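Quick look at the format.
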Amino acid sequence: MDIRSLRYFMTVAELGGFSAAAEQLHVAQPAVSMAIRKLEQSLQLQLFHRNERRVSLTDEGQVLLRHARAILQAVRDAEREMHELHALERGEVRVGVPGMLGSYYFPPILMAFRHRYPQLRLEVVEAGTRQLQQMIHRGEIDMGVIVADTPPDDLETHSFFQAQMMAIMPADHPLATRDNISYDAFFTEELVLFKEGYFHREVIDRLSAEAGVSPHIGFETNLIPLIKQIVSHGFGITTLLEMVVADDPQLIALPFEQPVWLDLSLAWRKGHLLSRANRTFVDFVLEQAGNG
């Protein structure tokens, strides 16, 4: 049983004759008759009464007609949806981003993407790098933004942005007049940090391990506005991307004496075929990064 045979069968049933069906299908009448005969042979059932002037369905043919209509409608629906997806008239992109990038880097990109492709649905999830990787593996999101210093072997990554982590402190802090800050000086201060699992925290954990010191953590929170408030009131210093404090005159961003650069990448499951909508999103992000 194939789609062509079902289409021929349904047309004969609805028009009541092989010749009429052949005319509507734009094929020769013997081709229709042969297709129906092969269908009956494969099913080992008679589908039409042929001893009448107008052919009519047997009881078995009535049952098959009901299924044929449903099957052919499903095929038409699938073809229409595939066309819409190909033309980007519909589709969904599920992407996970860390808090800093979700708040300060991605909003204009997401809005520009939505403006260019208004029919596509965007679902944006905020989480730490490690949690995003787990969500990708579980299929909860299509892709996520990760720090690609040591990308997992089971993820495909495409770098789109390099950012420098900066030491953030109040404008009146004793260290604020320096050109840069050493790791030793940074780790003598009380720190305001993200919780574990975020790349912000992983940077600090890595730097403190390399320096052989234990960081003095005064506050742990993933709320960026709260971190900025705590730091601006002199209750600790932190590390953030420079873009986060660019418009805040109360805060100063100093590079580390040994600069800390982060390579940020879009990542998805290796070997997983991205939908056309997701491929378009990846291309768009890379295009925007290149233009920036």
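Next, a different chain entirely:
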Amino acid sequence: MDVEVTIRVDGTDRRLTVDTRTTLLDALRERLGNTSPKKGCDHGQCGACTILLDGRRANSCLALAVAHDGAEIVTAAGLAPDGQLHPMQQCFIRHDAFQCGYCTPGQIVSAVAMLREAEAGWPSAVTMDSPDGGADGGPVRLDADEIRERMSGNLCRCAAYANIVPAIEELARR
């Protein structure tokens, strides 16, 4: 069965007709030609398909397009309007935080959302294990352990983590 949906992708409203089983990932890539989110595992385990869905990071391979009619979606491409790179994208380049680049868009989108979550005081397993309990609701200090924990849903087959974490740390310190 086909259903008509409207999604706002990287600032542009897009109306399309999709089968009810179509994931956001497939709608973005196959129907809209947005190849920023990648199809890695197609099971929500690698994070290559990470997008911002209504401001929160999500694995687009696990989200059905029909369930997100009217949603606001931002991909890594949408973080760089008019060719002006997002500060996180600049940090990834400066730190050479990629090798093959396949996971990079998902890593960057996830890192941008993670910084927002930490600023909002959202705890993680590392935060909760800290001496102060991390329960004060204030911004979370992002050290390497905290960043690794918060980015654990994004895998890199090339193991560029040694450069990914410092790239995120640079922006987190600003």
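The radius of gyration is 16 Å.

See the schema section for token definitions.
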